[in-house]
Every structure is written in structure tokens, then in C-alpha cells.
Design goal:
CATH topology of the largest domain: Methyltransferase, Cobalt-precorrin-4 Transmethylase, Domain 2
Strand order of the largest sheet: 4-5-8-6-7
Structural class: alpha/beta
Mean pLDDT: 93
Helix content: 25-40%
CATH architecture of the largest domain: 2-Layer Sandwich
Radius of gyration: 19 Å
CATH class of the largest domain: Alpha Beta
Low-confidence stretches: none
CATH superfamily of the largest domain: Tetrapyrrole methylase, C-terminal domain
Number of helices: 8
Distance between the termini: 30 Å
Shape: elongated
Number of strands: 8
Order of helices and strands: HEHEHEHHEHEHEEHE
Number of domains: 2
Amino acid sequence: MIPISIVENDPSALGGSTIDIIHHTTHFIVERARTARRFIKSTAPPYTIDSLKIYEMDKNNPGVHLSLMRQLLQDGHDVGIMSESGSPGIADPGALYTAEAHKHGYTVSPLSGPSSILLALMGSGLNGQNFAFNGYLPIKDKPLIDELKKVEKKIHRSGQTQIFIETPYRNDRLVQIMMKHLSPQLKLCIASEINAAQECIKTKTISEWKKENLKIGKLNTVFLLG
């Protein structure tokens, strides 16, 4: 399970041992082939990118290469699983391949690297002992508002930090809805462009956020409520 930088083509967040394993792997199953090729190239590998076997998951059928992976492992090859960004298996279809490897008795090695979800939690100051990742919330207004209300109840009931993401062009709409429908004392952390030069992580109460003319724009952002 090979992490990929969450800042485009910047392998500096990966340890030398992870890069060394990348350089000794020639078969990859990845979320996006173009991203994987560019990232591997940025690590200055000792081989040509064209010599690699890189298989892209189908977004409509991400498990399409499960049987291929089994065959490659049976033939004695190591197989690298890569997300499009961050750590595979976390909010990512790579988990399908991990489960398949366990099912057939193959060794799974998760390598150290960045995860925007965990980095956002680390930087939020919210409860890191009890937390949940909710992925994407509903798109339409009423289901979204209903889900936010459920999320708020979970926080009040258990103190569990609730983490979610949004498609960047809907960031500001989501913020506006949260400002209107969540309790003023609830804490909201907005963590944008983590690890990048323009990184910004701030945690404030909803009432404090309301005093600002908050505009996130189309930045890659993780939202945390607690």
C-alpha cells in the first residue's frame, strides 16, 4: 500500500524506505495511471516509466483488477496499490485490494506517508480519541441539512469528531449551509491545501466563523466538526 504525495509531484513527505520500495516495484494497480506515472517519475526511479506495468482501476468498477492482482502475486511479483492522492485504503478503493490479499493469505505492507484526513485531524485540536470519517455528504439541500443535523447529534451525544470532504467547487455552498443550520457553539475546523505552500488550518466556533466573510474557493479542503 504505497502512499502518494498530496502535493502534486512532491515526494518529500515520503520516507526514504518508502521511495526505495517504489523503486523495487514494477507492477502497480492505481486509482489514476497518469497521476501514478508522474509521481513515480518525481522520485527519480532507476528505471524508465514505460517499463512499468501500471493498471488503472475503473471508477465504475474499482475492483476490476482483483483477479489480475491475485495472478501477479501468485507469479511472485510484488504489487503496489496507489491512490490518486494520499494513502491508499483510506477513503479510497484500494481497500478492495487489501481485503483480497488478506482473503488469499498474501502479506499486506502499509507504507508510511501523508493522509489529508489524518493530518487535518492532527491540526484541528478536536477529539482525536474518537472520530469518524463520513466521506462526501449529500448534495441536495434538504438531505444535506438533515445529515448535518444527524452529525451534530452524534457530536453532542459522544464527543466524536466528524470529518468529511466536499467537491471543491461546492465548498462555499457547504459552508453557507453549515453557518445557517448548525449550533453557534459547535466547532468547525477548515483544513485547506494541506502540505502545500498555501496550507491553511483554522478551528473556530460556528458563531466565530459567522463574523468573517469566509470564502474558501476551489481549494482541496477537509472539514471537521466537534
